[in-house]
Amino acid sequence: METRSPGVRHMCTLSLLLVSVCPLRLCSSSWMWLGVTSAGISEKLGCANLPLSPRQLFLCRRKPFLLPSIQDGARLAVSECQSQFRHERWNCSTSQQPPVFGHELTSGTKETAFIYAVMAAGLVHAVTRSCSQGNTTECGCDARLQGGGSAVDGWHWGGCSDHIQYGTWFSRKFMDNNMKNTSTTRGGYTLNSMNQHNSEVGRQAIEQTMSTDCRCHGVSGSCAVKTCWRMMAPFDRVGVYLKDRYENSVQVSDRSRRKTRRKDQRRPPVDKQRLIFFNKSPNYCLEDRRRGVAGTRGRRCNRTSTGSDSCNLLCCGRGYNTHVVRHVQRCECKFVWCCYVRCRRCESMNDMHTCK
After folding, report:
1. pTM
2. Could you tell me the CA-to-CA distances from 132 to 80, 138, 169, 356 in Å, in that order?
3. What is the DSSP secondary-structure string of 91-106?
4. Which residue among 122, 127, 158, 325 is the one 20 to 30 A from 72 at the CA level?
């Protein structure tokens, strides 16, 4: 029987999470190959046809009602990744060729770290939302806080707090291998344990960004008593949180490299809330099809900006082309009695700059 290394199994798991936005990938002992084209996970596809390990297949068959949440979580994560990096040289582009995220999926860079974190967070968010909406029978609201509160201040815990514990549990079970996610100051990390560490940072990001909402109760709209509950933040706030972790990620030693410097071996353990990576990122300036790097040629840039979307930074010093774009829209709309809206047709000419 064919065996798979833990790192390859972990890549296949992440590949499954991406079937809702990319074609389904099947896994071999060396790589992920293009399989059946699918718009998403459906009941017709079934657990038996998914590239799962025996443990994941058992989990899938026990909880097939969570497959739509896997699909929603993947869409949520990829969309947010592309939103957070839309002005960067690496814009979280996906590929129709395996692997889904190109070289970034296995490069051990900061981008790899963000991908695993945002995918794990997306799965937690989607499963937890499904629980709170009453779409599953196994989970619902988090009732642990109910009944507590402050009688002096006139409020108590109630309502429907989001049950992130269930979503976090499922994300760990589904994405992580059985391998314990630990490292020693001498041993360093493997690619697999690095990915698991970053996945856990993504899950904890859901809890770190939760907020407390309250509703007032009382006569004539007064706030004599408040009922409060905990709820997840919108996922774009989670994306901002993880982007900050990406910017402040920590480089760690790779245990697979035998020639490791002693000063790297004695580093203290990394904070569990920080993303980690092995290798420095490429500049992403030029296209590299072998690595799945799209490059920045043809990307739209901002000539007046000083940030990452500036033509100087985004175009990597190659310069840019300027195009005049004609924009037509409705304007000066007025309501005419009775009963329609009359508008003028306005045209404008704008400059658009794209990288050479």
Report:
1. 0.80
2. 22, 11, 15, 49
3. -----SSSSTTGGGGT
4. 158
